[in-house]
C-alpha cells in the first residue's frame, strides 16, 4: 500500500468533499476562501492518488483510498477492551516453583500477581531465570519476593486505545500489560480484568494488512 502524507489543506478538502459530494472545484475553493487556481495542485494530487474522483460537469467524489490519517484513526478507534486476552493471575504467596509450573501450563511469558485479589506485581520469564541462577529455594520463597511490584507496574484501562497500549509496551520494553479496573474511585487498588500482549497488537497489524 502506498501511504501518502497529506497537507492540512488537502485534509480539509477531503472533509469538504465527504460532506458535500458531488461538489465542484469552485465550491470547494469558496468554502476555503481560496481561488480555484490555488487549489488546482491539491486537487490533482488527491485525484491522482485515488482519494478523490473528478467527474466532468458533476464534481468531486470521495473514493477513500486509505491515507495515513485513515489508518491512524482506525487504529485509535480500537480499544483495549475490544482485543484483550484473559489474564493469568497468581496470589503473592504462591511458591516460585508453582509459578514456574503454572507459567508452562498456561503457556504465557508473564503472570500478574495479586494480594487478596488486588494487583500487586508482575513476574516474567527473566525474573524467574534470574532467581534460579541465584540459587533461591524455589519451593520456599513466594513470588511476592521476586516480582516487580506496584507502584512500578505499567497498566492500561479497558477504554484506552490500543495505540496507547502499544506505545507503553515499546516505551517500557515489556511484553505485556495488565488491563485494570479501579475497585473504587478513591484509591489506587486495581482488579486485573485482562491482558494485552505483543501478540494482541500483532494480530491487529495482520488484520489491517489483510483488510479484514
Ligand atoms: P521477559 O522477562 O520475558 O523479557 P518482560 O520483558 O515483559 O519479559 O519483562 C522484563 C521485566 O519487566 C521483568 O523484570 C518484569 O517483571 C517487568 N515487567 C513485565 N511486565 C511489566 C509491566 N506491565 N509493568 C512493569 N514491569 C513489568
Automatic annotation (TrEMBL):
Which Pfam family is an annotated match for this chain, by its short name? Answer: HTH_11
Superkingdom is: Bacteria
Keyword Iron-sulfur found: no
Ranges for domain CBS come to 83-138, 147-212
InterPro entries, alphabetically?
Answer: CBS_dom (IPR000644), CBS_dom_sf (IPR046342), CBS_domain-containing (IPR051462), HTH_11 (IPR013196), UCP026546_HTH-CBS (IPR016842), WH-like_DNA-bd_sf (IPR036388), WH_DNA-bd_sf (IPR036390)
Looking up SMART domains in the UniProt record yields: CBS (SM00116)
Q: Which UniProt keywords apply?
A: CBS domain, Repeat
The keyword Lipid biosynthesis is assigned to this record:
no
Name of protein: Helix-turn-helix transcriptional regulator
State the organism named in the record: Wansuia hejianensis
